[in-house]
User: Fold these one by one.
Assistant:
Number 1:
Amino acid sequence: MTVESGMVLRGLIEAAGAAGLSLPHSPYWRGLTIGGLLATAAHGSLLWGKGSAVHEYVVGMRIVTPAPASQGFAVVRELGADHPDLDAAKVSLGVLGVVSRVTLAMQPLFKRSVTIVKRGDADLPAQVAAWGRLHEFGDMTWLPQEGQVLPTRGLVAARAAEERLQENGTDAARCAAVRTDLVAAEQQGYGYTNDGVSFTGYPVVGYQHRIQTFGSCIDSPEDGLRSACAWDPRVRGPFYYNSAFSVALSRAPAFVADMQRLRDLDPGAFCAGLDVRVGVLIRYIKASSACLGKAEDSVDFDLVYYRSRTAGGKPRAHADAADEIEQMALRKYGGLPHWGKNRNSAFDGAIARYPKAGEFLRVKEKYDPDGLFSSEWSDQVLSVNGGSPSIVGTRCAIEGLCVCSDDSHCAPEQGYLCRPGKGYTEARVCSVLRAQ
């Protein structure tokens, strides 16, 4: 199936379904463009076959790259399945040129059966290595997530309550507030329906194009913002960081065990410091031939946590919890940041962990030698001209612009100081001294 790169995933899935075809795997959110999700290596969850990344199903691309005046200022390049540059172009970060068309390998339309099982996490380190091999679309959340249309008034009220809890609430109050939401989400089947209207129980069986993504809020009518997506910038609803990183499958059990030990040191920090309504989303990614894809089978971890709207960043409750987890994944376990979901500090030195980075940079030099499609930030991430994507300065660690090395990088006037991690002591995080 050949589509323009600006087509939204929702449109591709619906058009493919109407033709009796399925995109084998995709991200869970349907509001992404095809060009954007490919540029950032977006994926679902799978270790079978070709895996869960959409770029694994790319069999052709048309890309427009800069050229001198003698060539009309542009070159249209057609990359077939066997073209030597396709592995660089299918995860490009947007720095090679304009992707105008993409051809994807599809499958005949198929059905899936979905069941969500709730269980304890005592054996999670062992299960994280096995789950992806056992179930074709298997993923896990430490606590479940949902995505559905919500009244704008409710979104604004929820954010206001969250801000009050951040300012004046206790850990117990913050954790109790989200448990109510979790119960409601579980009762509603996390957005799944058995007949297109209501949820009556598991398993939920449906065609792939009806079940593989969520995003009903982008299909809602124009109603004067009486309803909206939770993150719609036009309403003062939820506001979060989303950090995602992957750890090699062989190292994931040890990483999860370390996360559990960190949680057990201070359970309130784990509950109040991360958004447990969304949970820690755990997905599987197969090793890829793409230059900026995963070099080996990996487990992806998605974290969502509160972000202040205050200019310059305001410390959130237990800011150190998520930061320690992220640094542990990237530094202790050699993890890789998700290209589309992270803060500056996560990308520092990351390109050196991609074995085929040199090949990608050679294609970049050939396609765009003058760097027309590059920026200072992309050059820093790719280590093209040296430098670092980290921005060091006052309160930089609060916004994730740096890893702190000095108290001024945190918020010392509010008691947040740069300290070693509680479990991974090589981490440097902004911690506040609390009464015991």
Note: DSSP finds twelve helices and 17 strands in the chain.
Number 2:
Amino acid sequence: MPVPRAVFDQIKKLIPPLDGTLHKGQSGRVGVLGGALDYTGAPFFAGFSALRFGADLSHVICSPTAAGAIKSYSPDLIVHPILNENTPSQTVKDELSSLLSRLHVLIVGPGLGREDYMQSYAKMAVSIAKERGMFIVLDADALYMVGKDMSIIKGYRRAVLTPNVVEFKRLSEEVGVDPKTPADARASSVSRKLGGVTVLQKGAKDTISTDSTGEEADLAASHLENADPEFEKAKETLEVDLEGGYKRCGGQGDVLSGSVGTFMAWGKCFEDGAFGDGSIPASRIPFLAAVAGSMVTRTASRIAYKESGRSLVTQDLLPILGKAFAEAFDDTRSEGKL
């Protein structure tokens, strides 16, 4: 089923123009928080995907044990090894506050791990991002964090959760979704339980759902306190079933989180007036970003699989993202054609 024209047109409004009117940084400044001792590939894939997707700047916030490896993968990434378990918590908080003040979106989870100090710093970063009204993507072990304490993100409508099959099942149980709920309604139920947070349920087809009709939705917490409460009550589900590749390798979810995060960064630039007509409400941007990220990532997976087949690895998707973006949105300038 194709993405509805109305949704497609709104997505295209969030794409920054390539006409020389914007300066560096106005096409998105992305932050990825993750990268512990054993996990250096995931934050690289998320951060570098953001650049290939079209973000201007991509920062990786990680532990010192992961920084050297991540820096060696690409000089295009800006790496901040500030998540040190031996550093006083207030010092890390001050550094995070300073860094996040320069970013449009925070992607939390790729390579995060479950060590107490990394989980604690992730929770701290999400709290700071919420205070600043940033858009947030939560993936991988950040979803484990949410399952342990839903208050971290509950009611914050500037967020997208991107669970895979296993993570979605666990999250559904943790938020209290009735097991008898039909499969095609569960993403909406999770969103409602979490107060309207957008859920991107990954699978053979991706299901994107937002349900802010419940009491858990919090306009003030989402920096939407001046919005019309009735207008902000929304219930919408959309399936993206574009053909993807048949090889499922570790890391493709990180590409997706980087892609969704970039669109949310563009959404923040749009909200702040860097470009566009301001016609799309901030509360709708996470839903649109999730749909767009899914479209491009699935398209990239299909193209890369046709080239590499069984030997496909996640790195094969990275140089394909520009081509996939151009195909998904008929954007010839993504391929350098004017």
Note: The beta strands are 29-33, 57-61, 78-80, 105-108, 135-138, 159-161, 198-201, 206-211, 235-240.
Number 3:
Amino acid sequence: MCKLEQSEGKKVGGREWIMGLKSLGLSGEKSKNSMSSRSKMKLWMIRATTTILLWTCVVQLMTLEEMWGPRALKGWPSCFMASDSALDVKLSSIPVQVANPPKRVYKNNGYLMVSCNGGLNQMRAAICDMVAIARYLNVTLVVPELDKTSFWADPSEFQDIFDLNHFITSLRGEVRILKQLPPRLKRRVERGVVYSMPPISWSDISYYHKQILPLIQKYKIVHLNKTDARLANNGLPSEIQKLRCRVNFSALRFTPQIEELGRRVIRILRQNGPFLVLHLRYEMDMLAFSGCTQGCNEEEVEELTRMRYAYPWWKEKVINSDLKRKDGFCPLTPEETAITLKALDIDSNIQIYIAAGEIYGGARRMESMAAAFPNLVRKETLLGPSDLGFFQNHSSQMAALDYLVSLESDIFVPTYDGNMAKVVEGHRTWDSRRQFYWTESL
């Protein structure tokens, strides 16, 4: 009995031992499965974290590319970069958003008010001069007043054409610019207690230090009532020239409304292929001012002469048109322009956008141009009346549209060495943009 019990006990014990091994086996398998799951989870999290980090790096690199444009990143595709498609227009006058510079701290010597004269590009160049003068005299500049009494009679204020806040903040590291004078000084101006004068034309910066600065320190406010060509172009320190360029090509940004309409015009033109912008400076005011009457009949010559005498600030009254033409001071006529474009081997089927006001003589003077280059367009033919309704009777705003289209054109051809030709040429050179053909009077 005892042996039997012992034998059975061994069997039972063996069975328990086998069951124990089995249970241990099951427990081990569960442990292995748990460890495998944790390993997979870790691997997944490592992959996810690495992906996020890599994507963050790519986004940061793309941001750096937009701000500084290193060559190594120029060819990278990205949803954050502007498309290279011809229909995606990025105007050069819209710079990349960057942080505003810190305000420049200096002892303020007084306040400078300026009244610009002339057309859009003449005033634009003058604003650049006035910012440079204010900067180097350590004075506060009041936002320039635009010309409203010239031939164009445009009532636009500065903020109607240019992005005022961008103008002020982008230059805060150079000069303090106010939208208006402090109340006490503003009341003085309203009472007429202000020193007003036209500065001498083509003066260097020493003239403003020696003649204008003492007046500002004495009267606290000086009003410069003429601004065209008042600062010399050459022989100035490079810092002044660089500041002029910064103002012209970065700080003077057009309003969002003008920029958007400019994009629309460019997009319409791009849909039909490359285009040439022709600044055909053959408008009534230009011919009256210059006295250039080639191709005009007797009645038109008399009309232009009467107009010249009607504006007392146009100093030159008696003008020999033929002599002025020989000296090279007349714009090309529409007929001469057509011959010149043919000589330059311009494709007769190219779109030619006329960046100008109403051509003097109308369709009669444009006949030869239209026959040689049938694809002539203007903003008035590309846009509807509702699009341009806001800009009617605002010649400077219309000129701003032409300026934007000129910057983005494949070829730009001016027919007169005026302000528009100079500023567009400078802007395109600043941006290293496309072709620029220059034509001189024949």
Note: The longest strand covers residues 275-279.
Number 4:
Amino acid sequence: MIKSKLYYFGVLCANQLIKPLSIMQIGPDQIEALYQYAKFQFECGNYSGAADFLYQYRALCTNSERSLSALWGKLAAEILMQNWDVAQEELNRLKEIIDSKNFSSPINQLHSRIWLMHWSLFIFFNHENGKNGIIDLFFQDRYLNAIQTNAPHLLRYLAAAVVVNKRRRNMLKELIKVIQQEQQTYKDPITEFLECLHVNYDFDGAQHKLIECEQVILNDPFLGKRIEEGNFITVPLRDEFLENARLFIFETYCRIHRCIDIGMLAEKMNMTYDEAELWIMNLVKSSKLDAKIDSVTGNLIMTTNQVNVHEQIIESMRNLNARTYMLAKSLVDPGHAAAQQVGR
């Protein structure tokens, strides 16, 4: 009987929400019943219905705490339906409320931010622009402080997003700084890989950590998402991570060496010699890397253009003299013209 009444009220709200509340004779009890009905639909697995009724409830509700709870419920429903675009919108609404709301204590606000970041993982590792989204959110001062205060394990996901996102490499320096600050509190193969490579320049250690990174990704529920393509199952993020991690190793090694043994580099990147040679050839062709492969010795030769400092200074002085002359001429010419007019 109760469920049938709730169902009737839910349908009534869905069909007549545009009518004034006084005409529909809807009061606090009926609005609360709508919340309970939405919750009932959610528990029954009708996430679409639950999302609709929670949306309607928030339009009627005047209790800010209850409205916030309904928004969390709608976010959950959208995630379970895999409506990633809508879920992203609800996540942004929640963030705005959490950042602007007056909480009873800073601890409660901190916990809300941590919960928001955990829920965001479902969206960021499924949405097409998720790798940018997680970087934008987690690197905000308030949320980065929350990670360092009570959720350092989220650094795994932030680190993975930075590694695979070539357009956001500018955040790598800041990420390394945070990893170093939290190394006594949290570390895993992904954060240790970056520390080995960019802090300690330990290429052997980075090689071993890269093997462990693959296993971590495959066993992580967010990073190890599998996609079926015909008869094959792929793990896209695993492939992206390994490719970019090898590029990190290669770029870092090239910065401090002029002649590199391809066989040794292949070993450090966990590749066969032929795979490494082909990979390096494609990289040299597609990038601005000034290098060439000596197939006889099996070495990669880095060519450096030596800058003649003396010639650079002379050229700068020439430019400075030319600019000074033009500036002086522009000041003298008007005065000279005026003097000629007076003489006449």
Note: The beta strands are 227-229, 232-234, 259-261, 291-294, 299-302.
